[in-house]
Amino acid sequence: MAAAAAAVRPLVTVRTLEGDMATDAPAAVPLPDAFKVPIRPDVVRFVHGNLSKNRRQPYAVSKLAGHQTSAESWGTGRAVSRIPRVPGGGTHRAGQGAFGNMCRGGRMFAPNKTWRRWHRRVNVNMRRYAVASALAASAVPSLVLARGHRIESVPELPLVVSDSAEGVENTASAIKILKQIGALPDAEKAKDSQGIRPGKGKMRNRRYISRKGPLIVYDTEGSKIVKAFRNIPGVDVANVERLNLLKLAPGGHIGRFIIWTKSAFEKLDLVFGTFDKPSKKKKGYVLPRPKMVNADLSRIINSDEVQSVVRPIKKEVKRRTLKKNPLKNLYTLLKLNPYAKTARRMALLAEAQRVKAKKEKLDKKRTQLPKEEAAAVKAAGRAWYKTMISDSDYAEFDNFSKWLGVTLSILLPFPGPHETFKLVLWQHFIGVMKFKEGDWVEVFRRNEEPYGSWFPSKVLSVDVDKCAVRCELSATPDGRPIIEKVHERDVRPCPPHAPGTEHWMVGDIVEVFDAHSWRVGKIAKVLSDDYVVTKIFGSIQLKEFHVSNMRSRRAWQNNHWVMINKRTLQGHLKPQRVSIHDDEIRGAGRKRKGSSKNDAATLLKSAGDRINMYTQMEADKVSSDAHFRNSSAVPTRVTEEIAECSVASCSGCITLEELGTVIKSLGQNPSEEELHEMIREVDSDGNGTIEFGEFLNLMSRKVKETNVEEELKEAFKVFDKDQNGYISASELRNVMMNLGEKLTDEEVDQMIREADLDGDGQVNYEEFVRMMMAV
């Protein structure tokens, strides 16, 4: 970089100061050649970086640091690293690693040494070149402004003042001089920039930092100007014969604002020499001559002298032809082969003729059959379709379930919205029953947590296919009971308790009482005779339950509870009805291994809680008929709880007096002869008493004889809206739609045809009963 054109001028004006003689006119001095030297920022940065290292003081760590212990390695074979370890014991320090740079209290890696090469030698000629470049840069206003100096009020650069400035003795006069020449804003900027150094340097005797102000260069040795300017923050003073690059370019940045005295400015040629004469102060040194006299390269190129000899601009432009693929570009193909257009037209016409010929051939084959032949084909198709429906009706699971020997309730415990007529009727009017106000039931949760669980509830009101229930075991956060309206297919009676199920095995499907509801789970581990670990279906939970809070998995079918176990689900075996024998009751009275009084107390408390819950029906004034109708769900369970809890003090049999008391509590009033007849009817072993299993068989037969016909009549009334004794297709469609089954007209007609035996297009009560009993 050469000096700017503004800096290369023959003369520089000397600024007079206040107090000079009035006859002294502003003088002018020639510009020294030192300001015409090429500006080399790279040389200045290199020399400044090396010279600044020569002020460093050697430092090092102690040679004993990190080794002030008698640590030794433990060697191999002790499952620890081989780093030396501190000996001894009784303190945390014993056994800790030592010496290594990764150890606490160890030496540092590659410790600092005092014999490091701290200083750098710089070539003398390079140092002189850097100083001359810094001087040349100080004469360029743009570089001085770029460095951050405030020189807006300075008349010109380089700035030269009269020699009277060297006679200034105090700081006030120095500030007055700076104000006269327009350099005071730069000095005030340096003063206001003083602050605390960030980082650790503030602890190392260099706490404050500030920006650099102007540099005062004088000539006379021992001049008073040094003491006048040295107390102004940011202002430096230097002798012209001892110019230092560290002051001319602080930080290696060229463009320092310099104020010269006249004598110092004139002495530059003597100190640095010129392009033709060597320096008298620096032996044999000649200033480096710039490679270009004019640094404006664009002006040189565009000059008439250069443009007259260079070659003129080429204006002719040859563009390359655009290559096009003739296989993809039709116009390029036609240029190469004009016949391609005719060939493509002929191919399109041939394709159209082939399509037309194929259509005519197919239309010729698709001739209409005669009416009689078409009717025969249609009849054969209907017969085939009817055969396929009867053979593969997996929606009803009728033939398939009969072939497997599995009841419909086991395969489909929760009917979906696409089951057909028989399944819906069975689920809604036989499997679920018709409930009345005050009945104790269990409600299935489909869309609320915990999903797939049965909540003990009480029926408040009954609609056609829905009922309002109240959950007795849980409440809202504010303490109010939970009352909701549920569909009747999600309601079932409370199942009876089955004693003799204490021998649980891993893999058994059970129902556990958790979160105020009965949830289905699988036994994962048997802890003892009284406690098992169960995995609840639909979650990853593994919980521990007492056997008093468990029951076997059962399904309600044909007014009977059907036991479901692991073999039933895996092998599709025919499930057995729940029957409780006398040996099971007696076995319940035997003391289990590992049981205790606490277990018995827990069982009694659980049974008492359930008894109190189910016996609330009498407190709510439930009728005796409704009480007896639900005896399979409520009294049976209550009696089983009583038998299980008191079996330790009784024989496990029901005498004549006990039978009369129990039946009277269920709402019946039999005579003594009827009681004897009942005992003789069910007493298979002839001992004059009734075991608990025989009692359940008796009560279930009684309930079945009195309830099935009533349930069928109520179911028929639901379908027979006009109460004319017949179920029409429109009535069937409306009821099925209310139940959530959207059937087509063909499906409704097919249902009517299956149940209609006399062919009148309607279903009477006898046909309805026959169809339902077949289900």
Automatic annotation (TrEMBL):
Entry's Gene Ontology BP terms: translation
GO cellular component: ribonucleoprotein complex; ribosome
GO molecular function (one): calcium ion binding
Database matches in CDD domains: EFh
Ribosomal protein recorded as keyword: yes
Database matches in Pfam families: Agenet, EF-hand_7, EF-hand_8, Ribos_L4_asso_C, Ribosomal_L4
Family matches, as Gene3D superfamilies: 3.40.1370.10, EF-hand
Every EF-hand domain range: 670-705, 707-742, 743-775
Key words of the record: Calcium, Metal-binding, Repeat, Ribonucleoprotein, Ribosomal protein
InterPro entries reported for this sequence: Agenet-like_dom (IPR008395), Agenet_dom_plant (IPR014002), EF-hand-dom_pair (IPR011992), EF_Hand_1_Ca_BS (IPR018247), EF_hand_dom (IPR002048), Ribos_uL4_C_dom (IPR025755), Ribosomal_uL4 (IPR002136), Ribosomal_uL4_dom_sf (IPR023574)
Function: Potential calcium sensor.
Family according to the record: Belongs to the universal ribosomal protein uL4 family. Belongs to the calmodulin family.
Name of the protein in its database record: EF-hand domain-containing protein
